[in-house]
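Here is a protein:
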Amino acid sequence: MPYILISTQIRLESGPTIVGDQWSDPELMEYLGATLIKEFGNNFEEYRCDEPPRLVLDKLEKRGFQVVSMTGVGQTCIWTLHSKDGEKE
């Protein structure tokens, strides 16, 4: 899994942080302290952790991920990270 996308709502910059979907690497999600949840009304599941994005980004950097992009969409901040370690040869 060479790419990961994390996000948080601007008014919730202290957490929670969305760190993956139901197809994300379970070992990485455990490392991030994330829990798989499904909110009422959604037809998908997502991994969330209670930590703010800054701490999640610090943890991902230790795992070899680098931020390649960051943007704001409405009231949401989104970071895209890439890891060369996760690429298959």
Notes: The radius of gyration is 13 Å. Strands lie at 3-9, 17-21, 35-37, 46-49, 66-73, 76-82. The chain has a mean pLDDT of 89. The first strand starts at residue 3 and ends at 9.
